[in-house]
Structures are given as structure tokens and as C-alpha cells.
Amino acid sequence: MKNTLGERWIGLIAGLIFNAFGNGMAVAGNMGSGLWTASAVNLHNWTGVSLGVILFLIGVINAITNQFLIRRFDGKRLVGEIIYVVFFGSIVQYSAQMLEYFGINHAPIIWRALFSCLGIVVFCIGISLYQRANIIMHPNDDTTNILRFLYLKGNATASQLLDFLPPAIVILITYFATGQIQSVNIATLFSILGNGVLIAMSDRLVWPHLTHNFMVKPDKN
Question: Where are the alpha helices (DSSP H) in 30-180?
């Protein structure tokens, strides 16, 4: 049964809050982050280009790639994803700063590791919610949604693992260029192994009434 537009907007807003706050938790815990963020950090370390600019450029490249994956031009989708990229980084930054104000980044290493991994869980719940709402999302998350339903028969775990290949290659390239790997730690490994499973579990357990509103053609709502 298709959800109402109002339900989808609630899913979008809740998903954005969970996703942003979860990413802020991982950053504040300083025990690794999601693989795409880690690739941006390593590109920043190699090139000296602002991290915010790199995250924006990665998002734009992903948004354009999604147009090819859906095999048609969807201007609403493209513009929405670019707008998302512009604002999402700021929300994550303020969340991390708030948590650091409370001293999370100075906690013992075991607590920071647990806190960062909990952040991964929280942002996976957020991804699940706004992927199901399917109004606007980060282009990386839209990529996994497209891969999941157009190419991988609904397999969330496989789509997440396939989406991890580009940032993993970027990190490998930057390692050979600099001899360093940054922002990769226990929470990054947890993200690699757990994202797909956590998103699939969230689909079933967190507001299951919100079903996947995925579509290839534009929504008329």
C-alpha cells in the first residue's frame, strides 16, 4: 500500500535528523566514520582542498551518476540531491560540535568506539526512513536505493557493499600517494559490515508502515 505524501514527509524529516545526528556521533567519537566520509577526509589530506568542497563534489558526481543508473533524466531528483548535499554537511558539523562540547571526544577509547558504532546504527535507521519516503535523499543513499531495486532484486546488503567500492578505491589511491590512511577505524569496519544489514532490519522494525515508495518515473505528488 502506497503511503500518503504526509507520511512520506514525516519519514524524510525523521530520516534526515537520524542520519545527520548519527554521522555527528561517529565524527565526535573519533573512532572512524562511514566509508564515503573517510574517502573525502583522505582526499583532503592528499590534495589540501577543503573537506566541505570535496564532500560537495563527491555528492554532485554521485547525483549525476544516479541519472545514468536510472537510465533517464530526472531533473527534480538531480536538483533535490544537490540541495541535500549543500545543507547536510552543516547539520552533521553542528551535531558533532554539540556532542564534542559535552566531552564525547575525550572519553576513554572503548566508550568512543561504542559511541561511534552507535552513530552508525542511528544513521542507518535514518537512511532506511528517508529511502522509504523517497522524496529527497543524499545521492550516495539514492545510489544504493537504485542499485537495490533496479539491479539487485531488493538486496540491501549487496547494494551497500557495491556502493562501498568507489570510496574504497579512492582510499587505496590516496594511501599510495601519501602513505597514510585517515578516518578509518573500528566504526568504519562496523559500517562496511553492518550498513546493509542494519538498513534492512530498520525497514522491518522501525515504522514498518512506511513502505518503500521507490519509483523510476517522476512522482506526480
Answer: 35-47, 51-69, 75-101, 109-133, 139-146, 156-163, 165-178
Quick one: 4 exposed, middle or buried, by C-beta within 10 A (0-12, 13-18, 19+)? exposed
pLDDT, one tens digit per residue, over 123-145 is: 999 989 988 998 988 898 889 88
Is the distance from CB of 148 to CB of 156 less than 8 angstroms? yes
Single out the residue of 56, 117, 110, 43 nearest to residue 83, CA to CA: 56
Type of residue found at 125: I
Q: Which of 79-93, 115-129, 166-180 has the lowest mean pLDDT?
A: 79-93
CA distance 35 to 30: 14
